[in-house]
Design a protein that fits this description.
Radius of gyration: 19 Å
Number of strands: 10
Order of helices and strands: HHEEHEHEHEEEEEEHH
Shape: elongated
Distance between the termini: 34 Å
Strand content: 15-25%
CATH architecture of the domain at 30-178: 3-Layer(bba) Sandwich
Oligomer: single chain
Helix content: 25-40%
CATH class of the domain at 30-178: Alpha Beta
Number of helices: 7
Length: 220
Amino acid sequence: MAVDWLKLFDEMCARLYSAALSDVLDEMGFRDQVVSPLLGIKPLRSEWVAAGRAKTLYNEFSTKAEDPYELAIVGLDQIEPGQVLIAGGSVEDLGIMGELSAHRIIQRGGRGAIVHGYSRDTRQLLELEFPVFCRGGSPIDTTGRSRVTAVDVPVRFGDREVRSGQIVFADADGIVLIPPEAEEAVVTGALRRVDEEAQVRNDLRKGSSFREVWDRYHIL
């Protein structure tokens, strides 16, 4: 039976957390799937969670002011249900994601945005309850400073690379990149892990020791 990924993305947001995904990936031999927290990319609101397939936009410095959003418009108009916008490239202090882009992503059925850099319109994004993960807010516009130069190309986040179509998961603890060749096994394994951790949590509340729960579940 084919996986209903849109439904599964909802379940991931409701039940999963990045640590469980990271642990399952480690156990499966995928030990380099988490974006480094040293990059400082966090949700604008700590409780926000995003899960979906990446839609990548690559930004580069550019002083060309004519039609500054040409490829950004192309990329945003291509967003499909279940996708998460991934924006990055060779820019640093500019706001490369904002409220109007969020409106378009929402209308297209997108599930959030992860930015290697800064966003703008922070108060409006908070009011929209649109999950944005970034290094913080910046009011600096991209016009005459940078532009999207490619869509659906790999975008680097430090020493990790995000590819269009790859499933990404992000919460307050970090950003996890799921290998395409194992996506269903990883997600189902992580959902099973959170059920097991719930059992561990319940046993600890009843007075079990760490040694007892470790011997019982091999989870801590």
